[in-house]
Design goal:
Helix content: 40-55%
Radius of gyration: 27 Å
Largest sheet: 8 strands, mixed
Strand order of the largest sheet: 4-3-5-10-6-9-7-8
Order of helices and strands: HHHHEEHEHEHEEEHEHEHEHHH
CATH architecture of one domain: Orthogonal Bundle
Shape: elongated
Length: 348
């Protein structure tokens, strides 16, 4: 490839195409795998890498047999290549987004698969009547959604767990709110006068999947009290857990937000607060040069809604105070119960 002589002399020119192909080689761990991903020949890719190294005057890889290991110069170049790739992705996203010419801004949300549908609805509801907003929601595993977030295919990921620190680009975890957990159900017979956890003897329980923080908290609480749970079902879908709570066949362990409408309509016969147990919800984002303007609005909105949701319980459900006192006396070593929640303030 020929370049103008003045450009070569000043060193002002940089082939970004070659730079991004170098990035693919570094990310894939070799020329052959990168060529397969990019759908180009390995020989062409090797030639472009050699041209980039010659232009920069540095070797970017140490060749060790069939392995290619980044040199110190290669790692520095990769950092810049990552930043250029991310900036380019944002630029394309801004101008090629469906509806961009109509000045509509999309908010692309990723929701970890078991996340409460009530929480997802509350998150997007403020934008539903906005003609300048378009919403898309994708469900998936936390790891897969984080990959899409980092590649700018998503604007925000909703999850019960925060994203681990580190990585490129920088990840931010915003706490949306912390909601108390309950055992809830519609059983015909349950002697709640025994207090928690004695009232659970021989009671069928429906619990979240084992990998969830709430399940781990609950099992630790029972272990401290020397109580063995009678687990009849384990599910990782909150909508199914809500239906099991309404079945009358046992008690379901869930956060209050999963059954907020059932609490509002008094459809549950049993609502047992659990000492110190809660679920924390997060909005995960990444640093962007052109941040989505909707994120700040919806995050601050749901933070306020969850705060009000928790605040109203003591005013609307005073009968739960006695159960909370019994629970704390039964488990003297357990953490204090966080402010509990009940009926949600009705929207106008």
């Amino acid at each position: 490839m020929d370049f103008p002589k003045t450009v070569r002399e000043t060193g002002d020119w940089l082939n970004y195409h070659h730079l991004l192909r170098f990035r693919a080689i570094a990310r894939e761990g070799g020329v052959t795998r990168a060529a397969r991903v990019l759908r180009v020949s390995a020989s062409a890719l090797s030639e472009q890498l050699a041209e980039l190294e010659e232009w920069l005057g540095e070797c970017l890889f140490d060749r060790r047999g069939r392995s290619m290991v980044l040199t110190d110069a290669g790692r520095a170049v990769l950092n810049h290549a990552d930043a250029i790739h991310e900036s380019g992705a944002e630029l394309l996203d801004l101008f090629r987004r469906p509806g961009a010419q109509k000045k509509r801004r999309a908010l692309r949300i990723g929701a970890v698969a078991p996340l409460s549908k009530n929480l997802q609805f509350d998150f997007i509801e403020p934008l539903l009547t906005r003609p300048d907003a378009a919403i898309s929601v994708s469900a998936g595993s936390f790891d897969d959604l984080l990959v899409r977030l980092r590649s700018h295919d998503l604007d925000v990921v909703l999850s019960e767990a925060p994203a681990p620190p580190g990585g490129s680009p920088e990840v931010f975890n915003q706490v949306l709110g912390e909601v108390p957990a309950y055992l809830v159900g519609r059983m015909r017979r349950l002697d709640e006068s025994k207090g928690f956890p004695a009232c659970l003897k021989d009671v069928p329980l429906f619990l979240p999947a084992r990998h969830t923080p709430l399940r781990e908290q609950f099992e630790l609480l029972l272990a401290q009290a020397g109580v063995e749970a009678e687990v009849r079902g384990e599910v990782d879908d909150m909508a199914l857990l809500r239906l099991l709570a309404l079945s009358g066949k046992g008690l379901a362990l869930t956060s209050a937000i999963v059954v907020e409408r059932e609490l509002d309509s008094d459809r549950l016969r049993q609502v047992i607060p659990l000492p110190g147990l809660s679920v924390r919800f997060h909005a995960v984002t990444v640093r962007r040069r052109l941040p989505n303007p909707w994120i700040e609005e919806v995050v601050s909105g749901i933070q306020e809604r969850i705060r009000k949701f928790i605040q109203t319980v003591e005013e609307t459900q005073p009968q739960r105070q006695s159960l909370r006192q019994v629970s704390n006396r039964t488990l003297p070593n357990a953490k204090k119960v966080r402010p509990e929640t009940g009926r949600r303030s009705r929207r106008p």
